[in-house]
Automatic annotation (TrEMBL):
It comes from the Archaea. Residues 1-27 are annotated as: Disordered. Pfam families: DUF7511. This is DUF7511 domain-containing protein. InterPro entries: DUF7511. Residues 30-73 form the DUF7511 domain.
Length: 73
C-alpha cells in the first residue's frame, strides 16, 4: 500500500515490507480515506512501526480538522 492510498480498508494493515524504502525512524506516513458521503480522514502513523506497534500508534484527523497551509503562513 502506498501513502495516501484510498483503495484499502482500515483492516488491511500496513507491514514494514510494504513501506517505501526511504522510510526511516522518526518519519511518519499518511493514509487518506474518503467515505461514501465524501468526508475525508487522514491517518498518520510511524513509518518504521512493526505490525504490533502500528495498531496502537496512530492519529486520525477528520476533514473538518484540515486547514490550508496558505492560511497559516
Amino acid at each position: 500500500m502506498s501513502p495516501g492510498s484510498r483503495t484499502h480498508r482500515d483492516d488491511d494493515a500496513v507491514t514494514p515490507d510494504e513501506q517505501p524504502t526511504s522510510a526511516a525512524s522518526g518519519r511518519v506516513l499518511a493514509r487518506v480515506e474518503t467515505a461514501t458521503d465524501g468526508h475525508e480522514e487522514c491517518t498518520l502513523f510511524p513509518a518504521d512501526a512493526d505490525p504490533d506497534t502500528l495498531v496502537t500508534t496512530w492519529i486520525t484527523a477528520a476533514d473538518d480538522a484540515f486547514t490550508a497551509l496558505s492560511e497559516w503562513r
